[in-house]
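Long-time lurker. I teach an intro course on protein structure, and each term I like to show students one example going from raw sequence to a predicted 3D structure in token notation. This year I'd like something fresh instead of my usual example. Would anyone be willing to generate the tokens for the chain below so I can use it in lecture? Attribution to the forum is fine with me.
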Amino acid sequence: MQAIMIVAHKDPDQVLELCKLLKKTFNVYVYFDSKCHLSDDNVQKFKNVGINIYSYCSANWGSYNICKIELLLLKETLKNKDNTYFHLISGQDWPTDNIKSIEKFYSGNKNIYLTYKLTKDIFKEHEYVIWWYKFYYFYDRINRRSLFGKIIHRLLIYSQCLLHINKLKKLPRNMELYCGSQWFDIPRYCVNYIDNNPWYEKFFSTSFCSDEAFFQTIVLNSPMKDKVVQNNHRYIIWKAKHNSRPSILDSQDIETVQKGDYHFARKIGSKFSREFMDAFSDNNLEVSQ
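-- Reply from a regular --
Happy to contribute to a lecture. Here you go:
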């Protein structure tokens, strides 16, 4: 069996539809951000189809709690010794290949699928990404995307530059920091290696966007590095559409995805993406019926 871990923060009915599609082939585990208030009826619907639901804390964008949630899901999936491969997706993902074909691709597969770059080489959002790990932040308590959070972020960077703060001095010799997409597909031996790494957890707990560097940094500084394939088979458009960035996908994206090498696509929003969802659900009729 393979495990699919879903990190969700909205639209429980859409997430339930996704779970029903995946459930007959995968073991499915769902974490809902506690800000998403699930009704008793919502919870019962997931229980009725045998879906594991967790919801302990809230996770602001860029906060370490996102990492904590992903680590919690990994621990839960490891409890089932039949789980041999592990996929992390969002509640706004949708499979873009036949479900059985996705399962077959990873069955017995020993490769690690995640994207990565050296953090020191990246400049975006008007700042050096290495600053996100060099300095101290606390976005579990402050909403980074609010006006107040944006002001605090700039003040934290400027003040720590002036004070010559440098968490990187704590890094072991020859360790490199990597970052990339938080979505991955990894075999069980990799999950076992990642599980229970208190040093990494302590270091990244005071960083910004830890979820985009935690797993990459562990894996790329390990003997598993040669098993990494620089492709997570996700279709994502990093521009604004339907008042969202990444884009909310719609019918205009169907042909591009059909021609590509993708297993999942995001973001999906039922208001704009129904035709997109239906186009790829047709690939999974034997599962969804």
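Some talking points for your students: Residues 284-289 have pLDDT under 50 and may be disordered. The longest strand covers residues 2-8.
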